């Protein structure tokens, strides 16, 4: 996954879990990098217009960044599902995080169509 895509996805996930701004430390944890590296990347991404960054506060996705990150998240979810359900990988989430930006959305959509459907358990079913 390109660095840019991985950081956008991590920031999107962090925003979904809590409220922005998201600290560079939280992003660093999600992408398994140092806080200094995450801070530098967030500052670089700000110049691209996909997020705003305030030192000591954190980052917030812009509308354009959120749209791109939402697309990445769909691919991430599909890959996570594939890696867990089909390949039975233990580290399915981290693998999906690494690859989400490398997969064309059309490929991810096709993969979704081919994956076995696993309905959520109904309460009371044993």
From TrEMBL:
<dbReference type="InterPro" id="IPR050536">
    <property type="entry name" value="DtxR_MntR_Metal-Reg"/>
</dbReference>
<protein>
    <submittedName>
        <fullName>Metal-dependent transcriptional regulator</fullName>
    </submittedName>
</protein>
<dbReference type="Pfam" id="PF01325">
    <property type="entry name" value="Fe_dep_repress"/>
</dbReference>
<dbReference type="InterPro" id="IPR022687">
    <property type="entry name" value="HTH_DTXR"/>
</dbReference>
<dbReference type="InterPro" id="IPR036388">
    <property type="entry name" value="WH-like_DNA-bd_sf"/>
</dbReference>
<feature type="domain" description="HTH dtxR-type">
    <location>
        <begin position="1"/>
        <end position="62"/>
    </location>
</feature>
<dbReference type="GO" id="GO:0003700">
    <property type="term" value="F:DNA-binding transcription factor activity"/>
</dbReference>
<dbReference type="InterPro" id="IPR022689">
    <property type="entry name" value="Iron_dep_repressor"/>
</dbReference>
<dbReference type="GO" id="GO:0003677">
    <property type="term" value="F:DNA binding"/>
</dbReference>
<dbReference type="GO" id="GO:0046914">
    <property type="term" value="F:transition metal ion binding"/>
</dbReference>
<dbReference type="InterPro" id="IPR036390">
    <property type="entry name" value="WH_DNA-bd_sf"/>
</dbReference>
């Amino acid at each position: 996954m390109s660095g840019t895509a991985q950081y956008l996805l991590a920031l999107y996930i962090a925003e979904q879990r809590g409220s922005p701004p998201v600290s560079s430390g939280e992003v660093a944890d999600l992408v398994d990098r140092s806080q200094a590296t995450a801070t530098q990347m967030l500052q670089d991404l700000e110049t691209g217009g996909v997020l705003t960054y305030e030192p000591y506060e954190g980052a917030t996705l812009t509308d354009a960044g959120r749209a791109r990150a939402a697309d990445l998240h769909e691919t991430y979810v599909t890959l996570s599902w594939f890696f867990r359900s089909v390949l039975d990988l233990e580290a399915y989430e981290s693998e999906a995080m690494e690859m989400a930006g490398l997969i064309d959305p059309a490929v991810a959509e096709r993969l979704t169509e081919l994956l076995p459907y696993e309905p959520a358990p109904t309460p009371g079913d044993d």
